[in-house]
Amino acid sequence: MSKVTTKYLVDKLGLNVIAGDKGLDRVISESDISRPALELAGYFAYYTPTRIQILGTRELSFFSFLSDKEKYSRMNMLCTRKTPCIIISRELEVPEELIEAANKYDTPILQSKNSTTRLIAKITNILQHEFAPEISIHGVFLEVYGIGVVITGESGIGKSEIALELIKRGHRLVADDRVDIKELDNGHLLGHCGSEIIKNLLEIRGLGIINVMTLFGTGAVREAKTVNLNIHLETWDKSKDYDRLGLSKEYMLIHNSKIEKKTIPVRPGRNVAIIIESAAMNFRLNRMGINTAEEFEQKLFEQIVNKGDK
User: Fold this and answer.
1) Phi, psi at residue 25, to the nearest 5°?
2) pLDDT tens digits, residue range 37-85?
3) Does residue 232 have an active-site annotation?
C-alpha cells in the first residue's frame, strides 16, 4: 500500500490550507471518508478519527445553531492528533471554533471549491488508486489495437524483440521488463511501468537499451493501461498438443482477478508479432459477442447432424 500524506492530497486536489499546517505530514491510513453529522450533534461513540472528515453545507448549517459552549466542545472532540485532515467543501466559511481546535491539535483544516459529493468522489478515486493492491511481474506490456496485452515467457525467448516489432507497426509500449499491476476493483487491473529508471526503455539483446519515445515519438508510449490479455510465449514443444481451434479457455490470475491467457509456441519462421495482433483483434471480437471458434464448432456439429439424417 502506498504511503499517502495529507500534503499529497493538498497538492493533488489544489486544496487551500486554512489551519493546522504542522500536521500536513500526517499519513492517511484508510480510504473511507466520514461526514461527521452525528458527531456535531454530540454523539461520538462511533467516531473514527483516522478517517478524512468532510464538512459541507448541511453540517455547517447545523453547527451554526449550536450554543457557543457546544461549538467549542464539538470541534475540540472532532480535531485529534490522529485525524489526517478536515475538509470544508464549496469554499464555505470555516468556523473560528474549528480553526482554534485545529491549531491546538495540529489538525489540518483544508478548503475545497468543489461540492461535497464531487469532493468525496475525487478523494475516493485518489485513495482507491493509491491503496490498491499491487504486484510486479516480469514481462512486456503494450497496447495493441486498444487492448492491454502483457507478454510473458522465459528469459531470452524474445519478448522485447517482439515488442519492438509491434511498436514499429504502430502499437504503444507501456512497460518493459517490470510491469506493476494494480487491482483497482475486482476485474479491473491497471498496469504501468514499475520504475522511472526504465520508463519508455526497451532492452534488446545484441543492441542494448533503446528509448522508444526518442526513436518513435510520443505516440509510441503511454503511461498506463488496463490489462486485458496475457500472451505467454514458450519454446515449441513437439510433444505438446497445442490448441488449434481456440475453444479451450486458459486464464492468468492477478490478485483476485482473472484475465484471458493465450500460450503461443515460438519457433523460427513464426511471425509472433502478427499472431499477437490477431489475438488482440480476436479478443475485441469476443467482447463484442463474435466468437469464430464457437461458430465453427456449431456449423461443424450441424453438418455432422445433417449427414447423419440422410
Assistant:
1) -90, 5
2) 999 999 999 999 999 999 999 999 999 999 999 999 999 999 999 999 9
3) no
